[in-house]
Structure formats: structure tokens, C-alpha cells
Design goal:
Elements: E1 3-7, E2 14-19, E3 32-33, E4 69-73, E5 79-83, H1 84-105, H2 118-136, E6 143-144, E7 150-151, H3 154-163
Antiparallel strand pairs: 1-2, 1-4, 2-3, 4-5, 6-7
Length: 166
């Protein structure tokens, strides 16, 4: 499932969630799900509506200007306009390519994470420990006068030596 947050073209108010895999033109109200069904928020559009009757709850205008384009927002609040016709073509190409791959290899290919060797784990752990020790290590230089007084910075020691007799 490829769920995306759909927003209004005008005010960018969050309308609902749509599954891009099942989205097709003409847009139907059943394609749009509630933003938060657990807390009782209703779906964005009534079941009897057609796409040109859809209304944004915030600005009270039609949320989609074109019949085959919607505006979605990702998790970083960046909006992008998606053409539904192109999306359907991409789905068909993906399905066709997957079928060809299945014919050639006989099963669906699943990418697996490469196993990490013991040597690599040791190197990763060593680097983590080194990084932690560098963060925890506090560099304290002490500057000591001949009379026995200890100073944290060199300038204080120089000033003290001018007044010190030793």
C-alpha cells in the first residue's frame, strides 16, 4: 500500500489519505480515507459526490482543479502534484515488469540485507566506542607555577608570574 496525504490545491488543508496504487480517474469518494479513523474523523467526501462536487472543509472551494490531478504532501510538508493518468501507466509498467521478472526467475525477488561479518561488527563496535570516548573525554590542561599554584588557563599563570617572586 502506498498511502499518501491528500491536500487542497488552494489552501493546502489536509483532506484525507489516498492509496496511490488504487487511485484512478475519475476520482470517487471511496478512494479517499479519513485522516484519523480511530478518533472518529469522517472521510473527506460524502459517498454520493462526484469529483467536481468535492469541497474542501477549510476554504469551501473545490480541492482539485483538474479531474486527473491531485496534490499530495509528504512527511516533510512538501507538496507535489500527481497526474493520475501517468500514475496508472506507471502501475501497469511496474506490473508488466514484475510479471516478466517472475517468468524469468520463477519467483518474486526480495532484496535481503547483506549479512555483516564478525570483522565488520568488531570494526563498527570499535568506532562506536572511540566516538563515545572522545565525547566523554574532557581535555583539562593545568598550568602550574613554581610556587605551587594551579591555573586552568595560561593567561592567568602569566599574570600570576608577574606578581609572584619565585
Amino acid at each position: 500500500m502506498n498511502n499518501q496525504l491528500v491536500v487542497c490545491d488552494i489552501c493546502h488543508h489536509e483532506l484525507g489519505i489516498v492509496d496511490l496504487d488504487t487511485l484512478s480517474a475519475p476520482m470517487l469518494p471511496e478512494m479517499f480515507k479519513s485522516i484519523d479513523e480511530k478518533h472518529g474523523i469522517a472521510p473527506p467526501f460524502q459517498q454520493w459526490m462526484e469529483w467536481d462536487q468535492f469541497v474542501c472543509r477549510q476554504c469551501k472551494f473545490r480541492p482539485f482543479h483538474k479531474e486527473n490531478e491531485i496534490t499530495i504532501m509528504n512527511d516533510r510538508y512538501i507538496t507535489s502534484v500527481i497526474n493520475i493518468d501517468k500514475l496508472q501507466i506507471e502501475h501497469k509498467m511496474r506490473q508488466g515488469n514484475q510479471e516478466e521478472i517472475n517468468k524469468i526467475f520463477g519467483e518474486e525477488i526480495v532484496e535481503k540485507q547483506t549479512p555483516v561479518s564478525k570483522f565488520q561488527e568488531d570494526i563498527i563496535n570499535m568506532l562506536k566506542e572511540k566516538r563515545e570516548s572522545l565525547y566523554n573525554k574532557v581535555v583539562m590542561k593545568e598550568f602550574i607555577c613554581g610556587c605551587g599554584k594551579v591555573y586552568q588557563n595560561k593567561q592567568s599563570l602569566v599574570r600570576h608570574r608577574k606578581a609572584c617572586n619565585e
